[in-house]
Each structure stands twice: as C-alpha cells, then as structure tokens.
Amino acid sequence: MHFGFSLLHTDATSHARLGRIITPHGEIATPAFAPVGTQATVKALDPRDLHELGAELILSNTYHLYLRPGADVVAGLGGLHRFMGWDGPILTDSGGFQLFSLAGRRTFSDEGVLFRSHIDGSQHLFTPEMVIHVQEQLGADIIMCLDECAEPHDRAYNERALARTHAWAGRCVAAHTRPDQALFGIVQGGIWADLRQQSAEFLTALDLPGYAIGGLSVGESKAQMHAMLEVTAPLLPAGKPRYLMGVGAPEDLLESVARGIDLFDCVLPTRLARNAALFTRQGRINLRNARFERDPAPVEGGCGCYTCRHFSLAYLHHLFKAEELLAYRLATIHNVHFLLHLMRDIRAAIAAGRLSALKEEFLSGYQLVPEGTRAASLERRGATHKTHTDEAK
Amino acid sequence: MHFGFSLLHTDATSHARLGRIITPHGEIATPAFAPVGTQATVKALDPRDLHELGAELILSNTYHLYLRPGADVVAGLGGLHRFMGWDGPILTDSGGFQLFSLAGRRTFSDEGVLFRSHIDGSQHLFTPEMVIHVQEQLGADIIMCLDECAEPHDRAYNERALARTHAWAGRCVAAHTRPDQALFGIVQGGIWADLRQQSAEFLTALDLPGYAIGGLSVGESKAQMHAMLEVTAPLLPAGKPRYLMGVGAPEDLLESVARGIDLFDCVLPTRLARNAALFTRQGRINLRNARFERDPAPVEGGCGCYTCRHFSLAYLHHLFKAEELLAYRLATIHNVHFLLHLMRDIRAAIAAGRLSALKEEFLSGYQLVPEGTRAASLERRGATHKTHTDEAK
Q1: Same domain for B69 and B210?
Q2: What letter would DSSP give residue B85?
Q3: Mean pLDDT (chain B, rounded)
Q4: Number of DSSP helices (H) and strands (E) in chain A, helices first
Q5: Which of A15, A359, B235, B352 satisfies CB 3.0 to 4.6 Å to A260 for a cystine?
Q6: Cβ pair A137, A129 in contact under 8 A
Q7: Torsion of CA A204, A206, A209, A213, to 10 degrees
Q8: Residues of chain B with pLDDT > 90: what percent?
Q9: Domain containing B74: what range?
Q10: Degrees (nearest 5) of the Cα angle B41, B43, B47?
Q11: What's the structural domain count of chain A?
Q12: Contact predicate A95/A146, CB 8 Å
C-alpha cells in the first residue's frame, strides 16, 4: 500500500483524533505538524537536524521549485527526496496559495493562473493538469489539487473561486497518474458556512485519500477560523486525514486539533526564529531584547532541544546582535522543537483523554500575541507577495 | 600541567615536525589547523559540527569580542568556552592584526593603540596590559602578545614596529597572571631576514611557551613568505610550538609545514565557503557556476564530509542561487573538512617519512589560484578593514 491512514482513537470530549499516515517514505503520527522547506530546504536546518527534531513530514512549495531550480532539474536528479537529502515523507502544495499571494502579478481564469515570476518577471501559466505534472516530477508523497484561495470577506468572489476550485479538483484527479502519490483535495469557501459545507460535500464525493482545509489564517478572525473548522471537519470522512493549511501558532494547533484536524504546516516557527522571536511556554520572547545581554539561562528551562541544552540567552542575544549565521540555525532548532514537542504532548494527551486539560494548562500560561498587532501579522501566512518572499529569503 | 608541547618526531628530509600540544581543554595533534570563530562562533557551524569535523583548536578574536559582547560579559558567563559551548582548546589573538587592518581608524604609539570601533565609531585604547587582561577575561587556553604588524615593504616602519612589538611583549609577560593560559610571543620583521632573526632571538630569550610568526600573508609574495619562514623557524626553540598566523591555503600549509610550522589559523575555508568557493583536490570550484545546475556528483568523490555524503553539486548550486542559509553551512562543512583532512594526511605523511611525496602528489593535481588575481585576494588575510568585517558578517 502506497498511502494509508489509520484512525487509532477519537477523543471522547472533543473532535480530536489520533491516527497514523502511511507513505512510501515512512509513517506520520497524527496530529502532526510539518515544518516548511519552501525551496527544498527547511531554512537553516539540514535533514539530520529534522530527523533529530522528530519531524515526520515536511512541506515544500511547488511554485518555488517550479521556478527554481525547475521541476525537470529535480526530476533529473532523482526527485525531491534525493535532491534535498530527506528520506522521510514530503508534501508539496499546489502553488494555489502562492499564486493567491502574488497580488498584481497573476490572473485567475477557468483555464488556470497566468502569473509573472517573483524572481525574474517571466510569465508562466499554471493549469490544474500542469500543477499535477510538476508535482509528479517533484515526487512528493502527498500532493495537492490546484485551488483558488480567495480573500475571505467577498462572498461573490468566494462563490466564483469555489466553483473553479471544484472544477480544477476534477481536472487534477483526471490528470494524476502516479499511484505512489496521494492527491489531497482542498476545501475552500472563505468564512461562509454554507460554502464550506458545499465544498466539503463536493470533494468528499471525489473519494480522495485526504482533505485539506484552505483559505484560513489569511485575514479572518480566530473566531471565524474556529467556526469554519467546526462546520467543515465533521463533514469530511472520518477515515481520511484532515489537513489545515498554513496554521502553526501553538494556540491554533491546540484549538484546531480539538476540532478534528490531523495535519498542519506553517512557516511560523522558522520565520519567527529568523526574526529572533522564540516560543516559550510563557509566550514568545525576542532574543534581541537587551535584557538578555547577560542572562545565563537557556531560552526555556528543561527544554530538550540542542539550543537550550548548550547555549544561554546571552549567547543567542550576541549571535543575533552580531548577525551571525549560527543565530538563525539555533533559533530555528528551538522553535521547530517547540512545536513538534507540543504535538507530541497533544498526541499523548489525546491518548490519555486529557486534551482539554492540556489545552487549559498551556493556554493559561501562554501569553497570546494580540490579534491585529504587528507581531500577529508575522504569524499569518501572509496574503502578500512580500511575506512569501520573506520566507523564500 | 596546564600547557605543554611534546615534539614527537622530526622529518629527516625537511623541517616538518610531529607534535602534541596539551592544554587545559584537551590535546592538539600538530601540525594543526585552527578554524576561526571571530565572534565566538565559527561562522555557520555549531560546536558539534566542529567536533565531528575533528577540529582540535579554534581561534577567536579579542578585538571583536572586546567590542561585542564585551569581555566582562563573556567573563560573567563563565568565559569563552562556556559562552560559545565549545569545550575544546581555544586560542585568542591579541587584536594586533585587526588594529593593523583598521587603516585610518587607529593610531599606534608606544603606549598602545588608540582606535575607533568598526561597529559604532566609539574610541578605545588597547595597551599591552589591557589586551592581556581582556584575554584573561575571555579565558582561552592560548593567548597572544600585542604586536604591531606592519606593511611588509617599508623597512624603516618595520624597524620601529619591531622595537615596539618587543617592548610590548615584555609588558605582556609582566601583565600576565593566569597560570592556566599559555602566552605566545609573535615574531615580526616584515620581509627582512635580519629583522626576523633579531625578533626570533629577542622573543626566544623571554622563554615563552610558544611562538607565532606574524606579519606574513599580508601582501608579500609567496616566495618572500617562504624565505621568511626559512629564516625564522630554525631560530625558534625546537621544543616549543611554532604558529604561522593567518595562513590557510592548502599549498601554504604544505609548504609551511615543510619549513617547520606546527600551527595555523585562517578565515580562508569559512570565508571562501560563504562565497561559494569550495576546495577540491583539483583546486577550487565555485558552486554558483551554471555548469553545476544538473550535476548529480558530490563536490568531491570519496570525500567523507557530511555535505559530500548527502548532497549533489546541483543541490548546492540551487541553495546558493536561492540564497538559502543551508548553503553557507554545507559549504563551510566541506571546506573545513578539506583542510582538517589535509592536516591529517600531512601528519600521517610526516610519520611515514613521505611528506615531500604528499606535497608533490597534492600540488601536481591542484590548480593554484594565480597570485595577484581577484580570487587570490580573497585568500589573503586581508589588510583592509572591509575584509575583516566581511568575515565578521
């Protein structure tokens, strides 16, 4: 069997689930968080780091790899796993979200998306068929249908985008030829419950091996995101994994798992790390803060990551002040560890029937970044091209 | 014993020596090459990388650490070893070479060196006594006397600088209090054999635990460098280690070992790596070259470094084109491995009485960078401030 999902346990008091995804490159215990390796590298980390951190799945971006180095180059070198030296499971997105983010540089039509490269301005067309072909060249274990993500607040636009997303899903299924890749569908529908419901029902009828929920964390409120998850997740087949795209704040992971999500990806831990913002159980800290100049403590007492086991806040503060390359690596290790460790805690809590207790414990100590603040904007996947190239840098 | 040097073997047909330096933080098999960690980090590497690469000594810069984070900060955090998480031997330079490089921003006088920080323009005075105090705060295993490095071609200036270097050496010895640190003297004298001789004799009379040769690889020709080594090394005591500062090109290591040098440091492997220039047995290659776009081979077939064991030229080419942080790390691992592996080969060849055969074999296949070219200028330690901040970035 190339791909499979076993639902191992469902929480008695929430929609949380324990499961296991099987892929040709290994298994993934769910709920799981996938670090993002946009350009065939999780920024500042090497594959050994990822294994040691316990990453069981990473995401890479079709849009970026198509442009550079080119899917044919990757295919000629044996596919993405061999190219980047990562032998674990990989998921590639379809580029839909990147194209959505390329505001002013792309045009959506029924045929596909005409866009100009953020690298050299060259013009390209992504059709559903071509996006599948590119993802088959890359060779990830899980690939995604091309979708049209829409601004969350425009109902008429969301209706048109949803119709196109559904038509494209059918074309993607028809174009897909590799039996060793699992093609997931993407539920859209903005912040409208009836559109989400319609999308979940349409895609479920296609009997795909897994389903993503897209178009969230793009500007709607957290309450709206939760509402959409509550509408959508129960409509998706219980025996298939459910993947919430682009979400990775600790509080969002806890809230979404409780609403039935099995899989997440997000640039948040890696991007924050490069901005010197580190997760702790008390909330985020910024390593550039002068109060850390002489602090001999680790980022977090008791943390088992390489960074916390060997280095002080003072040293990390120095590395960021001095703009040393090691700063980005050590900060990234901690943030990825933090989220992967949180996911392990979450899985253990589900198994023990105490997810709500974990959620309460965690959130009572964790200072949230207020919505609408500049710090919060870093947390969004970002609906702008700039934010995307930030991650590409 | 805090510090010691055992001369294990002297080559029959050259001045090459095998030895062992003992320090409070471990032993160093010589001839040895020390990677440079200017700002308390070997750029892009962590301490585990350094151990795995087989580094037995690293160098850090007093000038840089004094300015940022400050020697008192480092001392308050338990010293440089603990601060940077490296438990092996460390050598700190005295700042003399950095001050020499700060052309237009510093004034040498008999008292010391008045200079303006390259970071914020603030004014500071380095005296011999203060440089020793700073190095005692940092706590390296081997520390250096303050010296005045001089442009190699001005005889009168070199005479004055040498007199000052000798006076300062005496003041450094008098100021030095920590018995667990070995204080080395630095032979100067530019490209004049009689000045080099005078310096070696003066410093030898101070009976220091080790001697460095400074002021080379700063603009003189390779032939001049070799001539100065041939004059100086035999005048230094056979039972003390001899350290050639700031030299690290493979051909220079081979030539200098044959002339009796035991120890080297240089930013070359790390700086070249960040410029995508990698060592191979055939010479340097640049990973940005378009010919590597689809090349599935490693940088060097048979190389045992992490980079060559896991990644293709095509992948490294992609990482550099995409300006990914992992590029600098993987390239640095290879270059440092290359030099440390060469030093192992050199030690084995001395033990087997075949150093000249190794030298001939290596140099017959290795394409040298022509002197005076732009690529060669990268190789110099750099007599400009810019070059230094390059390494600091």
Answers
A1: yes
A2: T
A3: 94
A4: 17, 16
A5: A15
A6: no
A7: -50
A8: 91
A9: 4-267
A10: 50
A11: 2
A12: yes
Closest approach of A318 to chain B, Cα-based (Å): 6
In the set B141, B147, B262, B265, the catalytic residue is B265
Q: How far is A219 from A14, CA to CA, in rounded Å? A: 26
B19 plus B60 within the same structural domain: yes
Residue finishing a domain among A221, A240, A267 = A267
| Domain annotation covers residue A142 | yes
Mutation test of the interface with chain A: which of B46, B61, B321, choosing the one with the most A Cβ atoms within 10 A?
A: B46
Residue A11 appears among annotated catalytic residues: no
Whether A295 sits among the annotated catalytic residues: the reply is no
C-beta separation of B142 from B59 below 8 A: no
CA distance A31 to A257: 7
Residue of A nearest to B45 (CA): A326
Among B212, B235, B267, the domain boundary falls at B267
List the structure tokens of B291: 């010919």
Please report residues of B whose CB lies closer than 8 A to that of A77: 294, 296, 312, 314-315
Q: What angle do CA A141, A142, A145 make, to 5 degrees?
A: 145
Q: What is the pLDDT of residues A339-355, one digit of tens each?
A: 999 999 999 999 999 99
Contact B210, B236 (CB under 8 A): no
| Option in A43, A73, A76 nearest B324 (CB) | A43
Residue in the block written with tokens 């013009």: A123
Point out the catalytic residue in the list A11, A93, A141, A252.
Answer: A93
* Reported confidence tier of residue A233, pLDDT bands at 50, 70, 90: very high
Provide mean pLDDT across the span B310-330: 98
With an 8 Å Cβ cutoff, are B326 and A45 in contact?
yes
- Which residue among B77, B83, B310 sits closest to A85, beta carbon to beta carbon? B310
> Quick one: B159 and B262 in the same domain?
yes
Decide: A255 and A226 in contact? Cβ < 8 Å. Answer: yes
Q: Which of A73, A306, A318 lies closest to B69 in CB terms?
A: A318
Q: How far is CA A371 from the centre of its chain?
A: 20
Q: Give chain A's end-to-end CA distance (angstroms, integer).
A: 38
pLDDT, tens digit, 9 for 90 and up, residues B122-166: 999 999 999 999 999 999 999 999 999 998 889 999 999 999 999
Question: How high is the pLDDT of residue A234?
Answer: 97
B11 and B350 Cβ atoms separated by less than 8 Å: yes
In sequence order, the β-bridge partners of residue A198 are none
